Amino acid sequence: MEQTYCSDCKGFTAIVSDHSAGDAICSECGLVLEAYSIDETSEWRTFANESADNDPHRVGEKSNPLLTNSGLTTKISMPKGGVNRSSIGRFRKIDTPDPDKGLIEAFKAIGVMSERLGLVSTIKDLANEIYKKMEDVKGSKGRNKDALMAACLYTACKRLEKPRTMKEIHSVANGATRKEIGRAKLDISKHLEDSRDEGCTKPVEFVKRFCSNLGMSNKASKAAQEAVDKTADCDIRRNPITVAASIIYMIAQLSGERRHIPDVSDATGVAQGTIRSSYKDIYPHAAKLVPAWFANEEDLKKKLWSP
Fold it and tell me: How confident is the model over 101-132, as pLDDT tens digits?
């Protein structure tokens, strides 16, 4: 129990709080030590016996700046019976529809998608913001909502430099096709100025996560990142994710922790045949790409698969 100094008792005593009056009272002598204090905590009260109401709780949601009035509203639920039913009914007749209902549902869906992908809250919040902007400019009219939400997540991940592959985004899109998500991405780029100049995703942005998925060491992961960075100077016309997967396979052969093509395919989502084909394009550049501190020319000749 909290203690404070009581002038009558001439010492520290336990205090009792009267929340209804806002008083702090000395438990020894009854002196009111503080009056009209305000309790700023949430009021989680339950009215279980009030007119057989289905929802006995009396507490609201946290504020959300993306919603009308920050999402702070008062709603009156209709009890099943009791003396207050008729009077409450009169107020319900003038109750207006919630203008944010669609946004709230979308934000919840984006939250579920984010959770399934293991994304941090900052990415989820940015995806919510992008979705709200698209709604404001009517940029999503006629589009599949699930596809738009998935595209918002894809864009948010990319903008915060935590990219996810289209395959990963598609896996949580509630049935929306990749084509629909792709169209929604184009809509976002078209209508939102801050999304137009994001540029192409770089292979290195995926490498660290893919190496982690494969359980590779920090040394191998660093070598893969350096090798992928150097591909920009080579004429390798491949999808960034495919390049990342092929480089990881190359580095895995050179390290003591060998990973086979099926393992790399499972970790990256790139088809085994695509990895083999891309590896053939990258192999001639191996001496230039692989860091010298990780493997020398003799290692490249002995350990790398020669297509």
Answer: 888 899 999 999 999 999 888 899 999 999 99
Query: Kind and range of the H or E element at 108?
Result: helix 101-117
Residues sharing a CB contact under 8 Å with residue 251, sequence separation 6 or more, in sequence order: 216, 220, 223, 224, 227, 290, 294
Q: How large is the angle between the packed helices 145-159 and 121-136, nearest 10 degrees? A: 130
CATH architecture group of domain 102-195: Orthogonal Bundle (1.10)
Q: Which residues of 33-65 are buried (b: 16+ CB within 10 A; e: fewer)?
A: beeeeeeeeeeeeeeeeeeebeeeeeeeeeebe
CA gap 54, 93 in Å, rounded: 19
Residue 157, burial from CB neighbour count under 10 angstroms (0-12, 13-18, 19+): buried
Q: What would the mean pLDDT of 291-298 be, rounded to a whole number?
A: 92
The CATH architecture to which 204-303 belongs is Orthogonal Bundle (1.10)
Higher-confidence residue of 7 and 61: namely 7
Residue 279: pLDDT band with limits 50, 70, 90: very high
Which own/partner contact pairs does 12-21 have at CB distance under 8 Å and 24+ positions apart? none
pTM of the model: 0.58
Residue range(s) in the chain whose domain bears CATH number 1.10.472.10: 102-195, 204-303
Query: Whole-angstrom Cα distance, residue 218 to residue 195?
Result: 33
Integer-rounded Cα Rg, in Å, for the chain is 30
